[in-house]
Amino acid sequence: MTAELVPGQNHPLPSARLEVRVSAARPVAAAVVLTDGSGRAPGPGRVAHCGAAPPPGVAAPGPPAAGHHLALDLGALPPGVERLHLALALPPGAGAFGATAAPHTDVATPDGTGVASFTLAGLTAETAVVALEFYLRAGAWKVRAVGQGYAGGMAALLHDHGVPDAAALAAAVTAGPDRPVHLGSGHPRPAPSATAPSATAPTTTAPTPPPATAGPPVPVAGDAPGLTMDERLYNQVWGVFEDAARSAAAYRSAADFADSRQEAELEALLADPAARFGPAAESARREIRARRDDLERRAREVLERDSAQLLAEMRAVEAAMPAPMARWDAPVWADWRAPGEEPPYAVRLGDLHLPDHPGLRVPMLVRMPLSRGLWVDAGASPDHGVPDLGVPDPGVPGPPPGRGGLRGTAAAVAAALAARLLACRPPGGMLLHAVDPDGAAAAALAPFARAGLLAGPPATGLPAVAALVDSLVKRVDLVRMALRGGADDALPPSVDRAARLLLVHDFPYGFDDRTVGGLRYLAEEGPAAGVHLLLVADRADAAGYGPALDPFWRGLTRLSPVPQDCLADPWVEHVWTFEPLVPAPGSTVVTDLLRRLT
Predict the structure, then answer these.
(1) CA 203 from centroid of its chain's CA atoms
(2) Secondary structure string (H, E, C) spanning 500-515
(3) Could you tell me which residues are beta bridge partners of residue 377?
(4) Structure confidence at residue 454 as a pLDDT band (50, 70, 90)
(5) How many independent structural domains does the chain possess?
(6) Do 473 and 521 form a contact (C-beta atoms < 8 A)?
(7) pLDDT tens digits, residue range 269-324?
């Protein structure tokens, strides 16, 4: 049965050989953009369109027409190609897509078995649109309904995919020259008729793929582009994040459509007074509700299938994660070894999840070295109802005795993050400084002090805080001057090569206007000079500074110390729940790590 897709929904492909049909109310130009895993095309040779020799695995589209018939062979694509984008555009002067009926696409196997269909509804002023995306995930190809329109036309679409000289190529795509179109073999064929679909074969013959096995392919860790295993795992994690977001969007869209169609059908039934009552009316209402439930059930089946695949993939990825990217309970921490001079590719700050995918936790990874400071928001939610992170082992960073509540939880989260960041450097490669004006974070900092990992006693009063901030500001100034002059090896002996991590608890207590200005400077300029900021603060406590601190807060990566819905993805803008990383109660993984760090 052909799957009727909605924007964002994906569907597995049963075969590497496919046929794609496009039907529209008026002539449209078609093109296929071949890109890497990040959606970027390396050059104009990666765009299949009328009048140009197509790349292997993709048949050349015909000139602008009301119908197109494209043949794909996903097993014969050039190396490095992991995505195909089917683009449609109106010829110059033809108006916009919103003026006529929506284009429709169908994907089928060569024997005519339907796979998926998608109607590009909702277009308005757009003159070009990405209709479908064929992409490789976990060793298997899928098709995704996209429907992303471009008011700037084909030039904007190609530019968005990194195609050089996009304007000139867009003109060639939409012009539809009446001249022979060459296949990859070099033999010319006549240009297809503008009134009939063009049936062509892929340009490269590949061995017939083996019969599809039952069930989805076995997930493989590192099955993503990248030069190193860490980079591939990083890219794979964000691929899972993107797929989870779009899968949830597809389900929600399908459920909303089922509800709206049910409402429209019931309104139409009630609009006829003669049909409102009686056995026939009740039977019609049951049929309407059954159709709605069937649509929702089919959408949920797709969602559950996607969730199972993504969960299996994340299990494979978690098992391969290096320590900085792994959970605290992962076995890799027991075998932790100090890294070399190069920092890890990325570090894990927490986990993300959506209610649509129960059980699926996607790591929140950021590249190393950090380019932004981290802010653990001690005002993320009311103190009441905050989960107790309990610290049976007094050596484990946790809420200070008697402190409790959200601020103590935030201190525990910051301490765990500090330990993880220190583990990302070789011994002595990062020094930890602390600001703790009222000593409230003493228990969380105690394991670092016992392990000799604090660069000095925590700064408490204003003089000590000012002296610490001034020393780090001077260090940043010296390093920046050396880097600008290309003489980073000429730093004075007093300036060592170790990075710095400044953990500030309960900001802005212990600060005055001058030290606040110094902290802002460290947040903006420190990362490039190896000085990084980890802040525990409630923004409301700094309200007296007014909007002057707004750029400061925006320049930090905000983290919640408790599970909270606080992050929206860039694709469909779902709000994700963030969960911080803390060791389980009674765990000694952090104290063991700190001992080994010495």
Answers:
(1) 34
(2) EEEEEEEECCCCCHHH
(3) 537
(4) very high
(5) 3
(6) yes
(7) 888 777 778 888 888 888 989 988 988 888 888 889 889 999 999 999 999 999 99
- In SS3 terms, 23-63 reads as EEEEEEEEEEEEECCCCCCCCHHHEECCCCCCCCCECCCCC
Give the count of alpha carbons within 13 A of 427, CB side only: 11
Each residue of 352-398: pLDDT tens digit? Answer: 999 999 999 999 999 998 999 999 999 876 443 333 333 333 333 33
Q: Are residues 269 and 411 in the same domain?
A: no
- Are 139 and 12 a contacting pair, CB within 8 Å? no
211 located within any domain: no
Q: What range does the domain containing 583 cover? A: 347-597
pTM as predicted: 0.66
* Percent helix, percent strand, percent coil in the chain, to nearest 5: 35, 25, 40
Nearest C-alpha neighbor of 303 from the set 343, 253, 338, 341: 253
Kindly give the interhelix angle for 279-320 and 229-271, rounded to the nearest 10 degrees.
170
CB neighbourhood size of 577 (10 A): 17
Last residue of a domain, one of 147, 179, 211: 179
The answer to whether residues 300 and 391 belong to one domain is: no
Whether residue 291 is found in the same domain as residue 390: no
- Distance (Å, rounded) from C-alpha 267 to C-alpha 244? 35
Q: Do residues 390 and 519 both lie within one domain?
A: yes
pLDDT tens digit sequence for 128-185: 999 999 999 878 899 999 988 898 899 989 988 888 888 888 888 887 544 333 322 2
Q: Tell me the C-alpha distance between 240 and 361, whole Å.
A: 10
Regarding whether 578 and 471 lie in a shared domain, the answer is: yes
In angstroms, rounded to a whole number, what is the distance separating the alpha carbons of residues 308 and 217?
12
Evaluate whether residue 185 is within a structural domain: no
Identify whether residues 257 and 388 lie together within a single domain.
no
